[in-house]
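Suppose a colleague, Dr. K., hands you the sequence of a protein chain of 677 amino acids and asks what its three-dimensional shape might be. Before reaching for any lab equipment, you can write down a predicted structure in token form. Begin with the sequence itself:
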Amino acid sequence: MIPERPSSANLSNNTPLLGATPNQSIDNNLGNPAPRDGAFEPSKGRKRWLILGIVLGIVIIVFLAVFLPVYFVVIRKSPEAQSSTSGGSSDASASGTADAPRPSATAVLTTGGDGSIITLRNGTTFTYRNSFGGFWIHDPEDPFNSNARPNDYTPPLNTSWRWGVDRVYGVNLGGWLVLEPFISPEIFQRYPGVRDEFSLAQAMAADTASGGLTQIEEHYETFITEVDIAEIAGAGLNFLRIPIGFWAIETWDGEPYLAKTSWTYFLRAVEWARKYGLRVLLDLHAAPGSQNGLNHSGKLGTINFLAGNMGIANAERTLDNLRSFTQFISQPEYRDVVVAIGLVNEPLASQIGLDPLHSFNLRAYDIIRSVTGFGEGNGPYIAVQDGLQNLGRWDGILPGGDRVIMDGHAYFAFGDVNPSPMVALAEDGLPGGTWPAQACRAWGTEFNESRTNIGPTVSGEFSGAPNDCGLFIRSVGVDSFHPQCAEYNDWENYNTTMKAGLQNWIMASFDAFGDFFFWTWKIGPSQAGRVEAPLWSYKLGLDNGWIPRDPRDSVGKCAAVGINTPVEGTFAAFRTGAVPSPTIDAAYSAQYPWPPTSIPSADVPVSLLPTFTNTAAAMTLPVPTYTSAPASATANLDGWFNDNDSTGGIVTVAGCPYPNVYTATFATVPTAPCTGP
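The predicted structure, expressed as tokens, is then:
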């Protein structure tokens, strides 16, 4: 447990802003203590005037000390703002196929905390619940206001994040913009036999009677809403990791995904995150060609990223995607909210190899930093995924690199069957059995050593599941053989001891990682009408008692079960942006050239593999329009931060043959390079 914290004051929309800041309440009930025996007591008239004078003086002091900072710093005053009583949603809409959030015609600046009333874009309302001192801010005329904070232990968005001091308490928005069968089972169950988003999109496109691919946009529209983001902030969390696929930017021939649409919804989430004070890590979850052959990469099957005959070409497309994302999120309007970018989610290092991945990561680093520049505040941190390897295998990565984070994913669910009961007592005398200590032993040391040897390290994914029980957890049509699945899947009937055991082991996981993103925020119901992968849903666990109400209660859990793994918090200056002109070690750069000297599963040497040329227009992501903002607020918003980056976008070389992105078999094996200008 952590030391007692000050209670959080409430600010509802019925509370005048004149009296309190969003995280402060004013008590105007001034008592009149009785005089001590023998003390001088003024006459009733003098006493009354004295009390009135004291009260008036206090009111004036409070007004000046509290209201004026709010007036000039937190909000931009207008007559409408002073009379506002409810919070509208953002009025941003992206240029694309779907509208981003829009307020009602009467929406005005509002700010509030626990108990305030939020008005959604459809006109309905809900009550914001946040017992952690967080407050939201929404100003249609100042759409990039970044003063909100999710709680009183996380810095506001407009204040620098301090690695090693501030803790990442995060969740993923998994299964939203990159669909996964176990997260959104019902949408896959509509089309028996589909196992990934590739085949789902094909089936939907052929089913025009049911709406075709618009069914995917309906999923975007409904699966994650503003209420979810508000609940995440209200749960004591402070970070979102948002997976997105390459098709948010564009698709090429043979790629059936819904193109250029999910970006609109990503921007919608960013606006909600800004409103509630949450920071965002943009995670490129699905790369062209598939980086791991798993269903969450877009297509189940073979790896064609840094592997196979299209391995270099697909990697070049990925680098171009990262460039476009970076150009957008590095704009001053977005860099306080989207503070990190994940290069590629879970590239399968066991098949690709570490050397090609080192070459790719270095090339991506160079491209991103050529856009952003160096040092604190200049574009996002760069998160490098562990490739489903022990973090220790990445020691020495990007030596001298500016603002690099390691992202480790850790699951017991896919390991050996372990039937250890969750209801048995753990070392601290609470339920949880062997699981809390196992989490601390397995992950605490590994993640702390990564902090020492590499720099800031987060767990970008883990869950509350100790096994692979649940619908579609491994894949569509693949069931678990774990002997306890009936018990674990029956979440509606968990008893108090089971819930306490799960919470104890989940808190041990929190403590072992130190900085984390739970996978995932929510699981949708199956066609049976119930959640069938319960221990992967933060929201379900929070609502039903096996996720802690306060994530900070996890601090010290590993020590309580006899495993001391204090979180390392001191990092090299270049890792936190304190070096203005950092350089990558020259020997490292020479060791890992681009393109890599070899990749697996290719029929010819790298020099003969297909590549692209940079003669197309650069791919600039569309920006929202803000209907209520003055032109000056958005004058410089164009989706492209660094105009000095004038390299063209990638395109095929005329006359060169290109195998299929996913089944890269040469019709004619090349014997000479085919390159363009």
